[in-house]
Write a structure and sequence with these properties.
alpha/beta; glycerate kinase, domain 1; Rossmann fold; six-stranded mixed sheet; 16 helices; globular; MOFRL_assoc_dom; pyruvate
């Protein structure tokens, strides 16, 4: 492993550690209520967050176990042992029947919360898929169809979740409405650009300013063809999300406990300590993965030509408009596009990965987190006569990097603060 590869992996690991529930959650947990603590969690960090809650309240505080109950819905392969909070593994990014069961059970627990209870809601990336509760008249199969079409359309997550909120009985503030008698505290690990609360897990406990009309307009914008049941649901005023001023939020508090910006700052610190000048492009980048890669390749080649030792850092969430039949995710497609543009540029290495440990893929815990590029990638391209543009045309980045041996395989990290992209240029 080259020194730059070691540094890239160290930067990735540090950004993940800075957002892990084991280290960040306990300091934000609220005092005990007079009644029960009902914990509802959703997302890729849900089980890890639930376990951290149990350690705090049961072990550190000494809460009677009978006063703690709840449910955590997480992606397959992301479970950890818990004592009082039940864990359900469910589909992601496409929801499934397990996600339906988890959402229904969560709504039931929320509805049973009294004025003396604390409803503790723990959210992380993936929660929108793990809690699937279609509105009346829309089957889970139809919700799956809409989700798949949106994911392939190139739409940013904010637009995807606007549609999701208006086809759900739990998103868009409806979980808060179900538990309106209780005190509600939501603690969230942000995985979205600009840390917008309505977008994190589709905002189940916060007011939603978007409307049914917005959702309909987005389906038109991305040319998503829906069946009559979905169209009727988006025309039905009963499916409007909860708005600011709704009584459901009178005892509700929302707090972000980890965000992409903080983790990107950790990456910048490590790069500087390694002697690199840092070009920080921000934690909120969006856009088509291959287009952003073209811009970053230009920056890297200019830095190389100028003899600079530069780290180009960015977060955010890129998208892929799927036209081919291959496998991959936005980070792998970004890396593949860079491989095509950098070719034999010595002194340049790249890591692009999702901090949750899975970049696109088939929804398996073993999916790659992303990919790494350096001079060994270019040697493999020549040795195996790999054409990155051909793989790019088929959206088949996973196959390309499997052939070069450059897939980043981390397994579930049990947190998620969005994507991390690091381009190291060492032309000194």
């Amino acid at each position: 492993m080259t020194d730059q590869r070691k540094l890239l992996r160290a930067i990735f690991d540090a950004t993940v550690a800075a957002a892990h529930p084991d280290t960040i959650l306990a300091a934000h947990l609220p005092p005990l209520p007079h009644g029960r603590v009902i914990c509802l969690a959703a997302g890729k960090a849900a089980a890890a967050m639930a376990a951290a809650v149990e350690r705090h309240y049961l072990d550190a505080v000494g809460l009677d176990p009978v006063r703690l109950a709840g449910l955590a819905a997480t992606r397959y392969g992301h479970s950890v042992p818990t004592r009082r909070i039940r864990v359900i593994e469910a589909g992601h990014p496409v929801p499934d029947e397990a996600g339906l069961r988890s959402a229904d059970a969560s709504l039931t627990l929320a509805s049973a919360a009294t004025a003396d209870d604390l409803l503790l809601v723990l959210l992380s990336g993936g929660g929108s898929a793990n809690w699937i509760a279609p509105v009346n008249g829309v089957s889970i199969a139809r919700k799956q169809q809409v989700t798949k079409a949106l994911l392939r359309s190139g739409a940013p997550i904010s637009d995807i979740n606007t549609v999701r909120r208006h086809l759900s009985r739990i998103k868009g503030g409806r979980l808060a409405r179900a538990a309106s008698r209780a005190e509600i505290v939501t603690l969230a690990i942000s995985d979205v650009p600009r840390d917008e609360p309505t977008v994190i897990a589709s905002g189940p406990t916060v007011p939603d300013p978007t409307t049914l009309a917005d959702a309909r307009a987005l389906l038109t914008k991305y040319r998503i063809v829906c069946d009559d049941a979905v169209s009727r649901a988006l025309d039905d005023p009963a499916n409007e999300s909860c708005k600011p001023g709704d009584a459901a939020f009178s005892r509700a508090r929302f707090e972000i406990i980890a965000r992409p910006r903080t983790s990107l700052d950790v990456a910048a610190r490590l790069a500087r300590e390694a002697g690199f000048e840092v070009l920080d492009l921000g934690a909120n980048l969006e856009g088509e993965a291959r287009d952003v890669a073209a811009e970053h390749a230009k920056l890297a080649l200019e830095a190389r030509a100028g003899g600079r030792k530069l780290a180009i850092l960015s977060g955010g969430e890129l998208t892929v408009t799927v036209r081919g039949n291959g496998r991959g995710g936005p980070n792998q497609e970004y890396a593949l596009s860079l491989a095509a543009r950098l070719k034999d540029a010595s002194g340049v290495s790249v890591l692009a990965a999702d901090t949750d440990g899975a970049d696109g893929g088939a929804g398996d815990a073993s999916d790659p987190a992303g990919a790494v590029i350096d001079t060994s990638t270019f040697r493999a391209m020549r040795a195996f006569q790999l054409d990155p543009l051909a793989y790019l045309a088929d959206n088949d980045a996973t196959a390309f990097f499997a052939a070069t041996g450059d897939l980043l395989l981390t397994g579930p990290t049990l947190t998620n603060v969005n994507d991390l992209r690091v381009v190291l240029v060492d032309a000194t």
